[in-house]
Design brief:
By secondary structure, the chain is α+β, with helices and mostly antiparallel strands. Helices cover 35% and strands 29% of the residues. It has a single domain (9-145), classed as minor pseudopilin epsh domain (minor pseudopilin epsh fold), CATH 3.55.40. The longest helix has 52 residues, at 9-60.
């Protein structure tokens, strides 16, 4: 019978050490990637909700209110509720006469205009996005801040 070849103990230990190093480097990077994906999804959710409110107001002929709850990081449009992840901070800038207590309201009118205002979504590291709703045309725009 020919001799059976296998791996030595030293070769197995070297392979395990390399696998351990790869895991030690990749786990923190994947956590940062996941947090970044959640943040981008939160920004996309807000933009989509504003666009939906504007479209619904124009097509239905009735004003649509987007309620922004900064304390619970929720946005509501009729029966649609968007919950933002816990690691982002949410603040709202809206017309004082529409607000209800701690809840900010941005109203979209049937002719395409809005009450105006904006929402800031901020990461734990202090960088973020300011989403602004133009009062005259109802246009929604975004601007990054705090990035180095």
């Amino acid at each position: 019978m020919p001799p059976v070849r296998g791996f030595t103990l030293l070769e197995l230990l070297a392979a395990l050490a390399i696998a351990g190093l790869v895991l030690a480097v990749s786990v923190p990077a994947s956590v940062r990637l996941y947090e970044s994906m959640q943040y981008r999804e939160a920004v996309r959710d807000v933009l989509t909700l504003f666009a939906s409110a504007r479209y619904t107001a124009i097509t239905s002929g009735h004003a649509q209110d987007v309620e922004i709850h900064p304390a619970s990081r929720e946005l509501r449009l009729n029966n649609t509720v968007k919950q933002l992840p816990g690691d982002v901070r949410l603040s709202v800038d809206s017309a004082r006469e529409l607000n209800r207590g701690e809840v900010g309201i941005i109203r979209f009118y049937p002719e395409g205009g809005t009450s105006g205002g904006g929402v800031s979504i901020e990461n734990a590291n202090g960088s973020g996005v300011k989403i602004t709703v133009d009062w005259l045309l109802g246009r929604v725009s975004q601007e990054k801040y705090g990035f180095n």
